[in-house]
Specification:
Layout lengths: L2 E8 L8 H11 L5 E6 L2 E4 L3 H5 L8 E8 L2 H13 L5
Helix pairs in contact: 1-3
């Protein structure tokens, strides 16, 4: 069963979406059977691609749309939102 979900979250950590948080995102998304995409303004990235996530240029205060599709879409989207809300543990 495929389910598509969408969440919106704001980048809270001071450094924004830089290499360390990007790798945490990639690791988190890899745990789920879902396709996750992040969107900042008109820029969209596959959350399993560190290079695409770097291209988002998501700084502190950026609004991020998290879209997930697949069997574990809800769980994957929630995990990504929780990670971002918690400032990636930084």
């Amino acid at each position: 069963m495929r389910v598509a979900v969408e969440r919106t979250v704001v980048i809270a950590n001071k450094e924004g979406l830089h290499f360390r948080p990007i790798m945490r995102l990639v690791d988190t998304v890899g745990k789920y059977s879902a396709t996750v995409r992040l969107q900042v303004e008109e820029r969209v990235a596959d959350a399993s691609s560190a290079m695409e996530l770097l291209m988002l240029v998501a700084t502190q205060g950026s609004m991020v749309r998290v879209t997930a599709d697949g069997d574990q879409a809800d769980e994957a989207a929630d995990a990504v939102v929780q990670l971002i809300d918690n400032g990636f543990g930084e």
